[in-house]
Design brief:
Distance between the termini: 35 Å
Number of strands: 0
Helix content: 55-70%
Largest sheet: none
Shape: elongated
Number of helices: 5
Order of helices and strands: HHHHH
Length: 108
């Protein structure tokens, strides 16, 4: 999650949002303290620690879903939410993908 937040901060900076090192640290500390399970709280935490100027809010709003989806951070472990049947289907699909990639690999 820290890597994703850092990528998000880098994107904000690239779009002209001024985010200091101290503010980045504040964002990490706040996320550690408040957690990531509540999507609304996660979004508000990042917004309140990273956006100082009202004119930067549209940039935050545009980039946030690109890095964290529409509601919040990715699940800590998405597999926990799958049924056993869904896990089997996912495993089969991944095996098929791997086989396909191995068969189509060009010699180097």
């Amino acid at each position: 999650m820290e890597k994703r937040i850092l990528e998000f901060i880098t994107a904000l900076r690239a779009m002209g949002v001024r985010v200091s090192v101290a503010e980045s640290g504040d964002a990490f500390q706040a996320v550690r303290a408040l957690g990531v399970k509540d999507p609304r709280l996660f979004r508000t935490t990042l917004q309140s620690t990273l956006v100082k100027e009202a004119h930067d809010l549209p940039t935050f709003e545009r980039l946030f879903p690109l890095y964290f989806g529409s509601g919040g951070p990715p699940p800590l472990n998405a597999l926990d939410d799958l049924t056993p049947e869904q896990k089997q289907m996912l495993a089969a699909a991944l095996r098929a993908l791997l086989e396909n990639l191995q068969q189509n690999r060009s010699p180097t």
